[in-house]
Amino acid sequence: MAKKVKKIVRREYTKTDVKELRAHSKAKTPVVKIAKQMKRSEGSLRQKAIKLGIPLGHMR
Fold first, then answer.
1. Could you tell me if residue 57 is left (phi over 0), alpha (psi between -120 and 50 degrees) or otherwise beta?
2. Which among 2, 6, 36, 39 has most CB atoms closer than 10 A?
């Protein structure tokens, strides 16, 4: 039997999602924690942060 392909579900970012992302950016929360809490991928969060012009996670 063929493997089931996971369907990609895309969700728009709401105003509250953006507000929460900005708060995490200010608190320098690790991206892994934010991803689990918001149920989004790390890549999605990083891309949104770039569009908003905010840093995400800690800088090395």
1. left
2. 36
Contact call for residues 10 and 16 (beta carbons, < 8 A): no
Question: For 37-42, which contacts have Cβ atoms below 8 Å and span 24 or more sequence positions?
Answer: 40/11
Domain regions of the chain by residue span: 15-52
Q: Is 10 helix (H, G, I), strand (E, B) or coil?
A: coil
**Amino acid sitting at position 39:** K
DSSP 15-29: HHHHHHHHHHHHHT-
Per residue of the chain (60 residues), give pLDDT as tens.
778 888 888 899 999 999 999 999 999 999 999 999 999 999 999 999 999 999 997 765
